[in-house]
Design brief:
9 helices; globular; 8-stranded antiparallel beta sheet; Tscrpt_reg_LuxR_C; alpha+beta; 2 domains; WH-like_DNA-bd_sf; 37% helix; Arc Repressor Mutant, subunit A; Beta-Lactamase
């Protein structure tokens, strides 16, 4: 990932960046001093104008959902987004994807600081505008996943065998390898994969992996 990996912590008490590391000035054209002094404002300024409405809509969704959860559920809450940054000087567009989760939550469950892991994408994604999803684990242990294209809570309930296959998929194993490891037929693996796709509401393996990565299976 070289210098294109960025790490940042937003402090929601004063809307500043409490911490950031990475080659942010080179990628965005905004000096480090602007991020230190006006963290949230600067972060909004570098977002592509066409992505800002969905960004603001998603922020509203995130906090409404977060504050509707129990405190244990809030500690499992996390979200991801993909967006475009516009370089301040060159106007060059850079696609980035980020995974975010609460880093500091006070005793009352208030969202104090978050942790952003941001990766620059060198190949533009299939989506052409701001994309997002969020997930959390309910008190009863069930996992919930919601995305921009599927805005209704989706409960993930996988069987033990499906979880085994999920973990092997996330390790990069192909169906033949999974078949050998689990001592089941390739046709059985294919059936399990189809069932997993259906339960996740994913159209293909790429979407399946995107959803699975949002959880800690």
């Amino acid at each position: 990932m070289r210098e294109e990996l960025l790490i940042a912590c937003f402090d929601y008490r004063n809307l500043n960046l409490a911490f950031f590391a990475g080659n942010v000035e080179s990628i965005t054209g905004f000096p480090s001093s602007m991020f230190r002094n006006k963290g949230m404002e600067t972060s909004f300024a570098m977002i592509h104008p066409d992505d800002r409405p969905e960004l603001f809509n998603f922020q509203k969704i995130v906090f409404e959902v977060y504050h509707s959860l129990s405190i244990p559920e809030r500690h499992t809450f996390q979200f991801s987004y993909t967006t475009r940054w516009v370089h301040r000087k060159t106007q060059e567009i850079t696609w980035v994807t980020a995974k975010v989760r609460p880093y500091v939550i006070d005793e009352a469950g208030n969202f104090i600081m978050d942790l952003h892991i941001i990766i620059q994408l060198f190949t533009p994604p299939k989506v052409k505008s701001y994309d997002w999803n969020y997930s959390f684990t309910k008190d009863d242990g069930s996992k919930i996943f919601v995305s921009k294209n599927s805005p209704v809570d989706k409960e993930i309930a996988l069987t033990g065998k499906e979880r085994e296959i999920v973990n092997l998929i996330l390790e990069g194993k192909e169906s033949k390898e999974i078949s050998s490891i689990l001592n089941i037929s390739p046709n059985t693996v294919a059936t399990h994969r189809k069932n997993i796709l259906k339960k996740l509401g994913a159209r293909n393996v790429g979407e399946m992996v995107k959803i699975l990565v949002s959880y800690e299976f």
